[in-house]
Amino acid sequence: MTQPDGLDQNIRELQEWLRKAWQQLADPSLTAFSRRELRNQMKQCNADLHVQLQAMSKRLSQPLPAGRAFVRPELRILV
């Protein structure tokens, strides 16, 4: 699995959005209304991130299917 799947990508995008939102929140030129709106959006994004992380945790806690388990190969010496 070299490429991140959709769930991984969603988590990364939400984390990046929150990081940028925190930087934007530190801007002294924001009005009180803009700060409030940004904080509301951050709360929603945080809730979405929480749901995505729970889905990832649930997916990772599931056991591997029986057909994909490691089986030691039978070795033979060919002469």
Key traits:
79 residues, mainly alpha, 2 helices
Question: From N to C, what is the helix and strand string?
Answer: HH
Query: Radius of gyration from the CA trace?
Result: 22 Å
Q: Count every beta strand, where a strand is a DSSP E run of 2 or more residues.
A: 0
**Main β-sheet description:** none
CA distance, first residue to last residue: 37 Å
Q: Could you tell me the mean pLDDT?
A: 86
Outline the structure in words:
This protein has helices at residues 6-25, 32-61. The mean pLDDT is 86. The protein is an all-alpha fold and 79 residues long. The relative contact order is 0.12. It is built from two helices and no strands. 63% of the residues lie in helices and 0% in strands.
What's the gist of this structure?
With 79 residues, the chain is mainly alpha-helical. The chain has two helices and no strands.
Indicate the topology:
Blueprint lengths: L5 H20 L6 H30 L18
Helix pairs in contact: 1-2
